[in-house]
Amino acid sequence: MRKNSIKNTRINGEVQRVLADIIRGQIKDPRISPVTSVVAVEVSPDLKNAKVWISALGDEKAQEDTLAGLKSAEGYIRNQLAKEINLRNTPQITFVMDQSIAYGVNMTRKIDEVTKDL
Asked: What residue ranges define each of the domains in the chain, with the CATH number in brackets?
């Protein structure tokens, strides 16, 4: 199976939807920010690994706490994912903090500063 096959794309979307529901509604860890979203999911073609990009509202400390809370709840999240989605293998989840929103805000601020001087 190719990495960008239609089947893999559908699996990525379904895993992203289920993980968002699990994180939003079932995890009660106070370290996890209440405004945490799953930005993207990339499941490997052999379904053994999943890289999950998350975005959490807040400062750097809140983002680190959210990432630590998700990593500690990884076993529970994987168990719930296995119950929700019937896959040959339940992927091992790796959480990565997505910095693209903060990067975009920073670049917009810099562009505004440059254009203000004109």
From this structure: 6-116 (3.30.300.20)
pTM for the model: 0.81
- Alpha carbon dihedral 51, 52, 55, 61, in 10-degree steps, equals -70
Q: What is the pLDDT of residues 50-94, one digit of tens each?
A: 999 999 888 889 889 999 999 999 999 999 999 999 888 899 999
Q: Considering only the C-alpha atoms of the chain, give the largest distance between any 2 of them, rounded to a whole number of Å.
A: 58
Pairing of strands 92-97, 36-43: unpaired
Query: DSSP per residue over the chain, as a string?
Result: --TT-HHHHHHHHHHHHHHHHHHHHT---TTS-SSEEEEEEEE-TTSSEEEEEEEESS-HHHHHHHHHHHHHTHHHHHHHHHHHS--SSPPEEEEEE--HHHHHHHHHHHHHHHHHT-
Q: What are phi and psi of 27, to 5 degrees?
A: -95, 130
